Every structure is written in structure tokens, then in C-alpha cells.
């Protein structure tokens, strides 16, 4: 009688290295059925950019499995139903998986495991996505941390890096099990294909290459240069790879800390990079412990914010037509590449929330659809951070001035000129505020404001004053400490 296979259920752990579910499945010595199930019924459906990434990442994973004598089995529909079908088809009696920790997914996993156990099928879950499981890092009162710095300190003191693993060299997979055709899922955009500017290499190899490029170059000056959007290589660009589990966060931390130990970078630069991965972890733990923040403010008083309904301004913001060059450059970079520089993300979010007084959830939804690194926990936490309503958030009265932010972090205008090319002939002194340019300067640059480039959809001071007035209705604050830099 043939040996029963075990099921290896891939989700957002699309790698073979440092994959605990794969390693435990291999330890059984039995044939393995690697399967990915496209099930969007139990949680928020993926955005369009995420679907593009998933298409490429699944192809890369299948190729890596085939190199080890295996292949990826694809199924679409209800995850439990598809697992039960595989079990019926193959006689598999064990499922290995890496857990998802978003609230709906976490509960869904538990329901599936309970149902399969009743059917006589074992289900083993592991942590392949985070530095540690939510609940492992708690404060002195046994409660989740709500402030980042003590969370990070406790995380680094508590969490232990697992040994690096490369996975089995050979994976035996039955050849008779049917798989969907990935092309039939139509994850890649069709008519039109808006992804021509996506300069990414999804998959485990792409993640490894991104890290290997970043460590010897960008990490050396990471703490400072990461704020300048026009400095190539200053950011790791690992965020989508981490979201899809194409690389373990421990692997990224290990490489950065080893570079510091070897004297190739300063420990301060390595620590800053580790802290950024720690912020991702903080966001994941917060969403796990406080599920309501996906829809409502972490600080409930901010649910009373008098948001404006302004479809025209929201559309202008989405299209990068606000009249503020740094904001527009960021929104156009997002649409073209599926990604936006982190400093610019803060500026465009602040502009939507505060200058336009539009609900942060509108921005979060747009980012969810257009970012290749759209991670629910990080997306929600970062938007609430800017809105002042999140855990350990930036105060609402911190209102970024998009003009001075551009002058400070894009001083030579390279970023704006790349993404807002109609302004490329303007001199630096008025590039971030074209409406201040003398008539002859605009004429020489071939620009008619309102025709070639929009006038500001809101004046900075008026938007700022309106935001501070709205804050008073929520908190009764009478102070004014808005960020003018």
C-alpha cells in the first residue's frame, strides 16, 4: 500500500528556505502535496496590485518546487472544501501550515483545524511570518503593548531567532493530483495592463537579491538616506517580499546584524533597520489583539472626527493632481510602480487626512488596492498613525507642510521631476510650489497653471486651519503645535 502523503498548505509563506511548515512536513519522510488555495471569501479580498504580485510569486514558487522534484498544486474556492477534496483524493491525513495572525484568518485557521480533526486529520500550525507569535510579548501587567519603543525592547529581549534552514533537496509529490491553471485565475491585469511600470522580481530569489543589494550599500547610510525619495538604493524594498513571506523577517535581521558585527556598517544603521522590521511586527500584534482597528479608530474619540465627503478632491489625490508636486509625485509613483517611498507616504497621507479632511479609511482602501506591499496590519496602523487615532500615533496636530517637506527631502527636485515631468523645467526655488513662480518663469518652463499642471486644490494655511478646527471638536484642544517643517 502506498504511503499516504501529507499536505503542505502555502499561504503568505511563499518560500522554501526558513519555512517551518515545510521542514516539519519533510521530517515525516512521506510524500508532500504543496498546495496554494485562492480563497477570498473569509477575509478582505486582495487589491489589484497584490493580485499581480501573487501571480508572479506563485510561478516562482512552482519553479523552485520543480527544481526539487515537486510542483505547486493550485486550487480555488473555500479553503476547507478544497482541503477536504485533496484529502479525499489522496488519502492525506496530516496538514502542515504556517499560521496567519490577522483576526479573521486566525479564527478561520482554528475552525478548519477543528473540522479536520473531527474527520481524523491532524493539522499542525507554525509561525513563519513574524518574529514571534502575538501574545508572546506582553507588558508587566500581561497586556499587549500599546507603545512601540517598549514593545521593541521587549521583543528583541524575548524573541529567539530560529536556525536558518534551506529545506529538503528533494520533495516527492504524487503526479496524479490535479491542479488549476494559474493563467485561468487571471491575477495579472487584463485590458488594460497597467503594470508595465512594475519594476519588481516577485519570489524568493527576488527577495534574496533585494536583501543582498541593500546590505552592502543602502544599509551603510540607512538612518539618514531613507528619508530622501530620490536616493536610489537607500531603501531595502523588502516590504512586499516580507508580506508574501518570500523571505523570513529573521533572515533580514540576521543579515543586517551580521554586517554590523563584521564592521561593514555601524550598529546604529543596523539597529534602525531592525527597528523598521520591529514596527511591522508591532502593527501585526496590534491588529491581532485589537481587531476593531481595521475598521475603527484605536482611540475611539477619533471616530467622531467630522470628515468631509469630497469626491472631486479624493479623485485628484488618487490621480496625483492636487497641485502639490511632492504629493502628486508620490501618488503617481504609486500608480506606476505599485509602491511609494515611505517619507512620501506620510506626506500624502497627511495631506488627505488633514489638508482635505477626508477619512483615513479612504486612503487606506486606495493603498490596499494599489500597493504591492499592501499588508492589512501595516496599512491600517500606518494610516491611523498619521491620523492621530492609532496606538503610539503621531499627534493629529502634526500637519506636514508638503512644500517644505519637498524642499527638505527632495532638495534637488529629482523625485518630483521624475514623476511630475511637466514641471521638470522649473527652477528648484519654485519647483515645490509652482504657483509662486513669476509669470516669466512659468512661461519659460512652458507651464500654464490650471492647464499643464493644476493649481492647488486647497491652500496650505486654509487646509491646516480647517484640520485644527476639526481636532477641537474631537478633543477640545486649543493648542497649535502643527508641524511646519
UniProtKB/TrEMBL annotation:
Its cofactor is FAD; (6R)-5,10-methylene-5,6,7,8-tetrahydrofolate. InterPro entries: Crypto/Photolyase_FAD-like_sf, Crypto/Photolyase_N_sf, Cryptochr/Photolyase_FAD-bd, Cryptochrome/DNA_photolyase_1, DNA_photolyase_1_CS_C, DNA_photolyase_N, Rossmann-like_a/b/a_fold. The keyword Flavoprotein applies. It comes from the Bacteria. Signal peptide: none annotated. Keywords: Chromophore, FAD, Flavoprotein. Coiled coil: none annotated. Gene3D superfamilies: 1.25.40.80, DNA Cyclobutane Dipyrimidine Photolyase, subunit A, domain 3, HUPs. Residues 162-188 are annotated as: Disordered. Residues 4-131 form the Photolyase/cryptochrome alpha/beta domain. Residues 167-179 have a biased composition (Polar residues). Belongs to the DNA photolyase family. This is DNA photolyase family protein.
